[in-house]
Write a structure and sequence with these properties.
299 residues; alpha/beta; Rossmann fold; 4-stranded antiparallel sheet; 10 helices; 36% helix; globular
Amino acid sequence: MAATAALVARYRSVAAASAPILASATQVVAYAAYRMPATHAALVSVLGDLAAAGLSPRSVVDIGGGTGAAAWAAAECFDGLESIVVLDQVAEALRLGRVLVADVTDPVLAAARFEQAEIGSLPDRVGDLVTISYVLSELGAAQQRSLVAEAMRLGDCLVVVEPGTPDGYQRILAVRQQLLDAGWRLVGPCPHQADCPLKQGDWCHFATRLERSAEHRRIKGGELSYEDEKFSWVAATSPSSPALQARSARILRHPLKRKGMVEFQVCRPDGTAGREVVSRRAGSRYRAARDADWGDELP
């Protein structure tokens, strides 16, 4: 429990880490029990969204992936996947990652490679898709930019996921601008290539619900059988990549459902954000709107 408490304190901090967060076998196991399920759930939400838009990578490289949460998510979301490589600096995290995939029936996940690598000297493991999840908060601003530049060198599509907090979103905004400056094309969650239209003090984030086991509840000291993981993300493809399906307006908050209408706050393809209402008079669109949720595209 002490190792878990230390992880909680670290994840709530907004300062760059002076040493690897997972420095011992005990801390690695604590992470796998405490944080890995939520990280996996967030990645399933993000990668599933991109798969629905037409992204179909054959190879994935996950930077800072530790025990393999993104590897599991990628195997779940992409049918045509052929190879997965997880890069991390912590040998114990990689060792546990190998143990976790050793007996799975998915041949691609079972064959995933877990390789030790330092940020700043990553090997030339080129993949169709490169992921960086919940890593940037451990780095200073210059290191963040350097890592993103390295990641852009390794693949044609980059996905970055951070906590759904104001500071997490600021890191995502910085990555977003770095990608745009390099000529990359945003493919999610933004439906446009313009500046973020949200007002000062607001931030773009989403949530996914995951079930908690009895052991998970015990470790987290919670009573509910579920938890909601909030996250911010950005994805972009290189200028030479094929275009993905055009995105419609993105729902930014829980919809308000009233009699005969559904009200949304959305980010639109024209680069604006604001209120959209779908009424019963819209017929099939209204029926689809009744089922739409936070993070979905507007019907």
